[in-house]
């Protein structure tokens, strides 16, 4: 099928850009068409059935301990599909996503990462965290475009964001509750702020900047997946990024490279970032 290239309205992107600047995140309803959502779902169902490069190894998801009964052992997330699947790359560089990112960054964006989460029934969530901790973009920060491929609510582990945490410094995280989170990092919510659940329909895209504290709870439903296609971007003027995100992808699909980040971020020189 063909990517939906119909333009956003003249006043939609500026309005969302104002919300993004104020709160650090914004929800763009219906960013992907129903047909596009169906295609994305089918692409990754086929990958899961056939097996592809780019999957996290199941034991990595479970902190080095293999457990075939863990839903995430059975449905590991797909990392960097844009590097080996043409359609995934085209969806990463979606014209509507590009238009919004350009208004948020104030200049042309570049792609840094793509992922697909299946989050089947019974799967753990991901503790509150900040994306910039991993990407270590310099100068500036990253922006995530988190697209729902299923309807998301509290029952199946919808996203939570902390409004106005975009001004929060990126911190070295605490240890997460491994019974609730498949990742080990947890960022406490600053005093005076609180997480808010973001209910989404399939095709909606949640944009948030790299300092925004966000995460999700477990999928407690019995029969609903909470699939998501997630991409990260940086401003075109970036000079450094954590090594695992290189090479970068311009929005016209061409690749280029920048210097690998070595500063270590809030955890010091021993921490070089990494995929998340």
Low-confidence runs (pLDDT<50, min 5 residues)? 1-11
Q: Nearest-angstrom radius of gyration?
A: 17 Å
For this structure, the quaternary state is single chain
By CATH reckoning, the class would read Mainly Beta
Largest sheet: 8 strands, antiparallel
What spatial form do the alpha-carbon principal axes imply? globular
Mean pLDDT: 90
Distance N to C terminus:
30 Å
Order of helices and strands: HEHHHEHHEEHEEEEEEEEEEEE
What name does the CATH topology carry?
A: Jelly Rolls
Describe this structure in words.
This protein has 276 residues and is α+β, with helices and mostly antiparallel strands. It has seven helices and 16 strands. The strands form four sheets. Strands 1, 2, 3, 5, 10, 12, 14 and 15 form an eight-stranded antiparallel β-sheet that branches. A four-stranded antiparallel β-sheet has the order 4-11-6-9, with no helix packed on it. It has a two-stranded antiparallel sheet with strand order 7-8. The protein starts with 11 loop residues before the first helix and ends in a 16-residue tail after the last strand. The N terminus is likely disordered.
Write a concise synopsis of the structure shown:
The protein is an alpha+beta fold.
Would you spell out the secondary-structure blueprint of this structure?
Blueprint: H1 12-23, E1 25-28, H2 34-50, H3 58-61, H4 71-74, E2 78-79, H5 86-92, H6 95-105, E3 109-117, E4 126-129, H7 132-135, E5 142-148, E6 159-161, E7 174-175, E8 185-186, E9 196-198, E10 205-209, E11 214-216, E12 228-235, E13 240-241, E14 248-250, E15 255-256, E16 259-260
Parallel strand pairs: 13-16
Antiparallel strand pairs: 1-10, 2-3, 3-12, 3-14, 4-11, 5-10, 5-12, 6-9, 6-11, 7-8, 14-15
Helix pairs in contact: 1-6
């Amino acid at each position: 099928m063909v990517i939906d290239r119909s333009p956003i309205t003249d006043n939609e992107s500026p309005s969302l850009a104002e919300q993004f600047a104020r709160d650090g995140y914004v929800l763009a309803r219906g960013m992907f068409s129903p047909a596009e959502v169906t295609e994305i779902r089918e692409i990754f169902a086929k990958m899961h059935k056939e097996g592809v490069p780019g999957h996290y190894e199941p034991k990595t998801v479970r902190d080095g301990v293999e457990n075939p009964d863990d839903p995430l052992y059975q449905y590991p997330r797909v990392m960097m599909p844009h590097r080996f699947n043409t359609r995934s790359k085209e969806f990463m560089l979606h014209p509507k996503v590009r238009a919004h990112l350009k208004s948020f960054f104030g200049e042309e964006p570049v792609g840094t990462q793509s992922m697909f989460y299946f989050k089947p029934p019974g799967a753990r969530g991901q503790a509150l965290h900040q994306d910039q901790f991993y990407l270590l973009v310099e100068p500036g920060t990253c922006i995530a475009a988190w697209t729902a491929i299923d309807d998301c609510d509290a029952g199946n582990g919808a996203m939570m964001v902390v409004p106005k945490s975009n001004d929060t410094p990126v911190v070295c995280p605490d240890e997460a509750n491994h019974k609730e989170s498949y990742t080990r990092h947890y960022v406490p919510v600053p005093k005076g702020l609180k997480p808010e659940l973001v209910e989404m329909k399939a095709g909606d895209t949640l944009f948030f900047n790299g300092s925004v504290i966000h995460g999700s709870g477990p999928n407690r439903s019995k029969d609903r997946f909470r699939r998501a296609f997630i991409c990260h971007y940086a401003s075109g003027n970036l000079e450094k990024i954590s090594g695992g995100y290189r090479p970068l992808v311009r929005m016209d699909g061409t690749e280029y490279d920048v210097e690998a980040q070595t500063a270590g971020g809030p955890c010091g020189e021993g921490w070089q970032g990494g995929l998340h």
